[in-house]
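Incident review: delayed structure delivery

Summary: a single-chain prediction request sat in the queue longer than the usual turnaround. Root cause was a stuck worker, restarted by the on-call engineer. No data loss occurred. The affected request and its eventual output are reproduced below so the record is complete for anyone auditing the incident later.

Affected input:
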Amino acid sequence: MFEGGYPEVSIFWEQDGIPCKCRIDYLRQSGFIDLKTFEKTNFKSIDEYVQDYIFRYAIYIQLRWYEKAIRFAVENKLPVFGTEEQKQFVSEIQGYNHGIFFIDRKIPNTRLRMFGECSELWEIADRRIQAAKDIFIKYRDMYGMKNAWLENAPPVTYNDLDFHQLYIEKCKDNDFEIEEDLY
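Output delivered after worker restart:
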């Protein structure tokens, strides 16, 4: 799986006046593999955990972004940042297969998940990417590219009434399950 390609391939481009970038964990002729390490801390099966992880951390957006970056680089003959071999390699990409390789940090649990035709999932990712672009354009137009993007608004102060009562009760009862941020 990690042969015939290159690790850590970076692509930088500008599209619609927005500077864009990505760093692909492993790029192959047929697409790419993203690596995710984790520590499974619950009683779900590894397969359930991986599927939940993809949605909890919106990994599908990252996959779609990488695909768009590769397509844009190939179609516009963009240079990539890496070795000369990597630069040549990107120009010869022939496929856009997406994959995530999950590696458990504590026990020898791994899973490879490839993505086929996921048109509804990619539509959701495209909308989220467009929303991010819209936010970028809004603040770029408001503040420019040389100033901090700080709104002149007073800070918000929360009190207990701002939070859902069940959340407060769970915190009091220590039933609230806090999951670690897993990378």
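Verification: Helices lie at 46-56, 59-75, 84-91, 119-143, 165-173.
Action items: add queue-age alerting; document worker restart procedure.
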